[in-house]
Amino acid sequence: xxxxxxxxxxxxxxxxxxxxxxxxxxxxxxxxxxxxxxxxxxxxxxxxxxxxxxxxxxxxxxxxxxxxxxxxxxxxxxxxxxxxxxxxxxxxxxxxxxxxxxxxxxxxxxxxxxxxxxxxxxxxxxxxxxxxxxxxxxxxxxxxxxxxxxxxxxxxxxxxxxxxxxxxxxxxxxxxxxxxxxxxxxxxxxxxxxxxxxxxxxxxxxxxxxxxxxxxxxxxxxxxxxxxxxxxxxxxxxxxxxxxxxxxxxxxxxxxxxxxxxxxxxxxxxxxxxxxxxxxxxxxxxxxxxxxxxxxxxxxxxxxxxxxxxxxxxxxxxxxxxxxxxxxxxxxxxxxxxxxxxxxxxxxxxxxxxxxxxxxxxxxxxxxxxxxxxxxxxxxxxxxxxxxxxxxxxxxxxxxxxxxxxxxxxxxxxxxxxxxxxxxxxxxxxxxxxxxxxxxxxxxxxxxxxxxxxxxxxxxxxxxxxxxxxxxxxxxxxxxxxxxxxxxxxxxxxxxxxxxxxxxxxxxxxxxxxxxxxxxxxxxxxxxxxxxxxxxxxxxxxxxxxxxxxxxxxxxxx
Length: 558
Description:
The chain has helices at residues 4-10, 14-24, 28-33, 37-42, 46-56, 62-65, 70-80, 89-102, 104-113, 116-126, 141-145, 182-196, 202-213, 216-233, 239-242, 270-276, 281-287, 292-312, 320-339, 347-357, 360-383, 399-408, 432-454, 471-483, 498-505, 510-517, 523-540, and strands spanning 82-83, 86-87, 127-131, 150-151, 157-161. The chain has 558 residues and is mostly helical. Helix 7 crosses helix 9 (104-113), helix 10 crosses helix 13 (202-213) and helix 17 crosses helix 20 (347-357).
């Protein structure tokens, strides 16, 4: 009888098979237990290997570090040690020290894998280097006054650990400024010592010579240029090009755009695959694609698209939290695009067709465009200033409504957790249904805006201070004045009139009178007025009415 686990494996769709292949690379034990472990790790793409190491963490990744290829090491340093075009020396030293912990030979291999200019920059920013061949009177001050000057084994250089970064030097003697971390100073000296003990010790001597004679800005500029060219080859474009992924694209334009049939050898790193394993319309549609060639094309498109989104979002490759947000946005925008205006009974079918025939980049742009259209409604609401008090443009909105609008006003519009009645942070929209939920919430806010625009807020401050002055309270106050047959305005209600108001609101035609007075001619406005009156009636139900217990109405001070 066949093994059940084997049956399940055979039953996997082409897409789920690709996900399983990617996810299996996260299982370090399985990978290292293979007879061909070294070859299996070497076969990983630079991106796959990098994210595997990052997910494992530096302490648990030593078995991987021990067998990484020069290309994988170079990609690791390229992707994890730069931030906003500046080398992070501490990060670079962390990785070099990790390779040194594996062995001196692996440290030498790692140092040879990175750009020579990068190694020279690390040494110059953390070491004081002076030629030992100089006459004593030409030695710099630090050689003359320091007690911990080291002479290299070949007798060519005097070394001292910089007390401060070269970039923070405030005096010519190079001894004044913010102190460097002591562990960093020790680490760089240990790296030099170990490299001098390798067979090719001339390598570190040449690097020290470069650190002595060149300048940090020149070394960093050269290293950055080489690094940027390589990470672009890995699928990480410069931001000025990456930002094009957020260019608007009308859904109607998709009809004339067809996917490129060519495939690439780019495979999903494990951390990417995790996001695409989550159930939803995107996963369900991908799982129905039976053609392995199409699935391979889609996987090849996903990697550069995800990388472009990260670069456009200013997310460093090593920022795993930022990566997760960018991938969540990718999944969300694709899901919105493939589900746009799809009938419920054919949603998965139409989503599959769009994935099979349309470029993922175009689908992402469509999803983003649809999200921006919702966000534009929020921006227009804010521009009216109808909810403003003082400098706070959203002062009159309830906590829930404010959260929803503020999330839509972000540079990358997001879904507030208030949309779903759950705690947490705003996150990218994940479906057309979530966008629809935001639209319905905006319908309510726009309806309140219409009412408030017709009936200005009261100038008086003679209302009970315990009451939170929100747009919904103002709407209820306007409706209450209408029910009492008074001028339709947001003038506070006298406490003595609350009993009369309760009686008036219980009348058969009270709701319709309020609707007419507030010109509630559309469904959204009628819903707002109905909700305000129902909440008010509930608060006025207990007898006798205590004004201090009424919070949905402006009540005049006694």
